[in-house]
Specification:
single chain; alpha/beta; 8-stranded parallel β-barrel; 10 helices; 9 strands; about 45% helix; globular
Length: about 280
Amino acid sequence: MGQKVLLTFFIMFATFTFALAAAERTVMVWECSQYCDFSTVDVMQHLAAIKQAEFIKHVSYEHLNLAGHDTNFWRVNSNTDIRSELKSMGRSTYPMFSIYPHEDLDNLPNIREMINDKAKYMEYVHTISDYLVQIGVTGLNIDIEPVGSSTDDNAPYVAFLKDLTEVFHAKGLIVQVDVANWCAITRDFKAIADAGVDRIITMDSYAGSFSGFKKGIERLLSQVPVEKAVVGMANVNFNNNKPFTQQELSDRLSYLLERGVQHVAVWDMPLTSDYLHMLGNFVYA
């Protein structure tokens, strides 16, 4: 059964290789570290797997969190800092700027204070971009997904992203933004794309069902240019919290090829050997 699934998947690759030959397909993985209850030893094992999987060129890792205005809205968290290890492997590095825990409603006032006052958020933009340049990373992965946000938050959030991106680009930094239809502040994918950010990563495609996965991809591609569009994939099926079967992975990755998707990001490490193998085939087909 496993060989049959893999053969079907390889045929799908051959079918779409010619059309996609000019597009460089990429894979990024996230490292959640201690926020997902991994030990430092676990994180080092994840890094060893990333090093072996040469097709994984980009890594985002928990490093920065939202804070109050007294600290310019950001702070370095206590997760294992893997920047040096990633740089020694030649990987692109994207520390995350996230709210943790996401369900904490206390985060929302800080977010609104930041995005609704340009003078305040420009302090954030300049201090955090200077910090990122100082530590020598590739860019920033912005993961703002607060519970309780509304569509009224979207326009100021987009304005914030536009100003941030202009400053970051002037300093040679890349901006990635995580989005989801279920999070009102990020719901307008097109407006976020028009703000000039480099990559938009949908979390809608984390869906456990194949139909939900496809729906998330179609929503992304209907609003975001394919070169900016990144399909988020989960490392397990969230419907049952079990690793995806070969057939489930084959269906998903074949659909990505069919739709011309160039960029994938997987939340989070570790990944099964089947998952790594099929991601490698996606990149190199």
